[in-house]
Amino acid sequence: MFAEAARELPLKQVDERHVFEATVIGLLDQLFGAALRLAKNREDAEDLVAETVTKAWASRHSLKDQDKFRAWIFRILTNTFMSDRRKQAVRPQTAIVEPHRSDEEEAFSLFEQLHQPFLLWWGNPEKQFLNNLLAKDLELAVDALPESFRMAVILSDMEGFSYQEISRMLNVPVGTVRSRLARGRGLLQKALWEHAKDAGLIHGR
Amino acid sequence: MKTVKTIGCQEALKHLLAYLDQEVGAGTQREMAHHLKVCRACFSRAEFERSLKTRLREVGRGTTRTSFEKRVNALFGQFDDEHEPDSP
After folding, report:
1. Are A32 and B55 inside 8 Å of each other by CB?
2. Burial of B8 (C-beta count, 10 Å sphere; 0-12/13-18/19+)
3. Chain segment A179-197, per-residue pLDDT in tens
4. Which residues of chain B fall below pLDDT 50?
5. pLDDT at position B62, please?
6. Chain B window 35-64: which residues touch A at a Cβ cutoff of 8 Å?
């Protein structure tokens, strides 16, 4: 169907569209995965990706280096998400609210909890713990994070972007990315620990 | 041959996540690699954090529905109808 439509277009335009299309298709699962964790439901995630792809095509000439396509389109995705969230807010916000700082959150370590002497494990406690965790448990723990931390965790731990790339995407200093990641990871581990206790995955002596 | 500064567990844990993210300088990178070679406890902690990151990475991969793929393909089709921004 598309090949037919493309035949009537100038060659340069056809090539450009085909390269764009192939690159987006190659990244579609990644874009959708990140959108799903940001929006927390499939329908909104699909809308977010569709809006991102449309905006990316419209501003394709702003991308100077094709090798940076992935970081570039993820930046459009996160900006679109933040902009939509601001529009939906009852009171308009100019920036994402930074949750109150707590050193306890940042310092929380699942590893240390798993190595408490009163716990009963056979073999390797960390491995057992991770094996018992379902993908759904991880998804719920990520979804429960405050928005600014969730974005940092998604972009770093799930998508593998560098702190510098995340800093550009979120328009915040690298130090803020480090701090959001540290707090997000601490909260995530705490949530997983609480879930494991509630689900009976951890047994005391 | 360069001498690697020996760091303690407290210092190693402070840099651990940034080290796993490959976000430390060359000196810290060497110190961390050395510490993880000689410290079993920190090595286990590093392995755990690495495994958790791997699990998160796996969870991050979404699976798109066929209906959504069709929607995206339809979007590409609409791009043909638009005027080129830099065309005369």
Report:
1. no
2. exposed
3. 999 999 999 999 998 888 8
4. 86-88
5. 78
6. 44-45, 47-49, 51-53, 55-64
Structure tokens at A172: 């915040």
Residue A54 touches chain B, beta carbons under 8 Å: yes
Q: What CA–CA distances, in Å, run from B24 to A118, A168, A181, B32, B77?
A: 35, 19, 15, 9, 45
| Chain A residue nearest residue B14, CA to CA | A107
Give yes or no for residue A146 having a pLDDT over 70: yes
A28: nearest CB among B49, B59, B64: B64
Q: What is the ipTM of this complex?
A: 0.84
Q: From A45, A77, A43, select the one nearest A59 (Cα to Cα).
A: A77
